[in-house]
Amino acid sequence: MSTLRDPSDGIRHTALDDGLRVVTEAMPELRSAAVGFWVGTGSRDEPESLAGASHFLEHVLFKGSDERSARAIAEAVESVGGDMNAFTTQEYTAFYVRVPDDHLPLALDILSDIIWTPALRADEIESERQVILEEIRMRDDTPDDVVHEQFGQALFPRHALGREVLGTVPSIEAMARDDIAAYHRAHYRPGNVVVAAAGNVVHEDVVRMVEKWLPRDAGARPERVTGGLVAPEPLVVTRRGSEQAHIVLGMRALSRDDADRYGLAVLNQALGGGMSSRLFQEIREKRGLAYSVFSYRSGFEETGLFAVYAGTAPTRAHETLQVLRDELDRVANHGLDDAEIEAAKGHLKGSMALSLESSASRMHRLGRNQLVLGSVPTLDELVADVDAVTPDDVARVVGRVLVDEPRTLAVVGPFDESDLL
Q1: Fewer CB near the last or first residue (10 Å), C or N of the chain?
Q2: Nearest Cα to 45, choosing from 152, 169, 238, 188?
């Protein structure tokens, strides 16, 4: 076991002998504690036959262990004023609880219980299967969710990164209890987990409690398969009668640890990250084409994506799409001016500080960074990294992303592909 200290910011990290990592941030001025188990497995780690297994596990683990039922867990957390939740992404799954600080042992006990020794009762798996199928149907009834799913599939065709995190109706219906249990045994190993805690916590106490409930069988999780990317598809259209057409236009971008990621963050902010951004001003404020318009980015282990979205009336979809293309072309050809870059940097630095004012937000930052990057930068380090972005850095990112990468267009609305070629 090895422990690192950083007394300047209260963040401490311990790597246990079996590979599990514990990272904490002391915030003694608070009276809350947030703790999460971050598992380095997501939808991209599933074989196609088990599409949706990571998300299925996210649901059924909260059904309890041999010692606790789902109701007992909910009552234990809520009776002390706490809350709990979980989520699944392409590359990791997180389970977390926030409680008053004197109930941190309860939160760690419950999370350890369900992560390491879930009951996976057959009847509860069946009931949760129906819940997930309803979640898929709800997603399918939400066209502004569907368009992002379709965009991902077209951007990463025949690759697990483009697969829907929820899985499909056939894969969820066919997934047996033994399949889910085997997937849990293979991936939920200490060496694949980060435990993050923030708030009024003592690092040594958290480590001691985590060790108390660790399973004896450690082992390593299966190696993640990377590569295998093929060319993105240029266009995917889901024909649907609706009050709005939903448009996503984007391309592959930078991996999660790319040295230019802060330059991409600045580009994203200036192009579509807020009310002063180019897209918001041009599409909503000037032309009144859309209520919702924004850009976004995601980074994965070996690649990433950058995209712009707008929802508009079907009769104005072609005009909106042309404005989106024109703005991307304008930035690709002429870049951003210095004032835009400085304004974007200012927003990013301020929003980072404002986003870290609760134990829950601090815990999320700890867990994600330790899991996917292997370390947790301080807020001062993050501010310095954003400050260091120069116009030349942004120009290089523009070239790498907006110029070099082919575009993919996804549309949900009353159109055929021929209408958008």
Answers
A1: C
A2: 188
Among 180, 212, 244, identify where a domain stops: 212
User: Cα–Cα distance between 13 and 23 in angstroms, integer?
Assistant: 4
Please choose, from the candidates 94, 87, 92, 86, the residue with its C-alpha nearest in 3D space to the C-alpha of residue 45.
92
Total number of domains constituting the chain: 2
User: Same domain, yes or no, for 288 and 410?
Assistant: yes
319 is catalytic: no
Total-model pTM = 0.94
The predicted structure's pLDDT at residue 420 = 74
Cα–Cα distance between 240 and 412 in angstroms, integer? 6
What is the per-residue pLDDT for 324? Answer: 97
Please check the confidence at residue 415 and state whether its pLDDT lies above 90.
no
Which residue in the list 25, 58, 128, 149 is annotated as catalytic? 58
Asked if residue 121 and residue 167 are part of one domain, the reply reads: yes
Question: Could you tell me the CATH number of the domain that includes residue 313?
Answer: 3.30.830.10
Structural domain boundaries enclosing 385? 235-420
* Amino acid (1-letter code) at residue 51: A
- Calculate Rg over the CA atoms of the chain: 22
